[in-house]
Amino acid sequence: MARTKKPIAHILIVDDERSIRNTLRDILEYENYEVSDAPDGATALEKASQTAFDVILCDIKMPEMDGIEVLERLQEIGDVPVVMISGHGTIDTAVEAIKKGAYDYIAKPLDLNRLLVTVRNAMDRSSLVQETRRLKRQVSRTYEMIGESGPMREIRTMIDRVAPTDARVLITGSNGTGKELVARWLHEKSQRASGPFIEVNCAAIPSELIESQLFGHEKGSFTSAERQRKGDFEVANGGTLFLDEIGDMSLSAQAKVLRALQENKITRVGGEKAIPVDVRILAATNKNLREEIRRNTFREDLYHRLSVILIHVPSLNERIEDIPLLANHFLDQILEEQGRAGMEFLSEALEALQRITWTGNVRELRNVVERLAILCDREISAADVERYAMPIGGLSDI
Known about the structure:
This protein is of the alpha/beta class. It folds into three domains: 10-139, Response regulator (Rossmann fold, 3-Layer(aba) Sandwich), CATH 3.40.50.2300; 150-314, Rossmann fold (3-Layer(aba) Sandwich), CATH 3.40.50; 317-389, Orthogonal Bundle (Helicase, Ruva Protein, domain 3). It is built from 16 helices and 16 strands. The strands form five sheets. Strands 2-1-3-4-5 form a five-stranded parallel sheet, sandwiched between helices. It has a five-stranded parallel sheet with strand order 7-10-13-6-14. Strands 8-9 form a two-stranded antiparallel sheet. Strand 3, helix 3 (67-77) and strand 4 (82-86) form a beta-alpha-beta unit. Helix 15 crosses helix 16. It starts with 9 loop residues before the first strand and ends in a 9-residue tail after the last helix.
């Protein structure tokens, strides 16, 4: 017996004429689509609430509930592409359907090739929407703020209060504590969330290149400048620019950043034209900037420009009550990435993790959890923690 091919997608046909439903069913099933149908809007809404369809074909002229109303109700259920079809179509009808959220509009009598192309394009759009949602969920999990300790509750409260404003924020804390995470949440909860979030690691860029990175350059402005380049201030326009490890920025670059903050304009390296920019600045550092000011390695006027709001991210050892939550979160995340399941920490293991001196903070904890996930069996014990965590942080009294 020949094996039946798996259907490409599941399509719902909504039309009060049985002959139209049967014709569309025959066409689509021949193209290897799974097909369901509904003779009226109420039945369509009931089916759509119970089944995740990939595309819906909906007639406009139907008794009791017309297609436009069905379209509006379908959008309350989900984000499935809806293609409207009608034998009484006009340009105005098509425009109204598209404005109401329809993916496309096809007039009767239906052109077979156009119908199939529209269905395929609607499926591509549906797949893109689903993939975008998946990636957003993945990004959300990656940058999720885990912890119920007092310091973490205070940080979340501060983010909620400060994020909707355009106030500049200086985030301080040791390496690995999660300063970038705070910056990302300030952006995500701001009015600029739909704009870009551009991160610049000031410590990783050579001092002679940092100005070009931030402000861009004109062609020929220096030896390797073979073409014009926009800087991060321009790229971040309308969004947020995160200056990580700003304490490592050169004094000359600091002067240009200060000027950009004062004037909301930048000038490319080798250029003369002032370019207006609309950027919110967030900065972070693991250094004591007041000490750097005393040493004349950081500008005091820039410090005051950046530190309208100060948020300090505590070390992991200052919030050990969050360690079990973090460890379980990282374990679930790592197992999902590796396509595995059925692994857990014993309570004794979580207590052992709380007794470690975490010099690398949350970043180090995640690395240790990943090592334990790889090297241990289904249950992670205190002995496993002692065996595999020792080379990283050392146990204080285990």
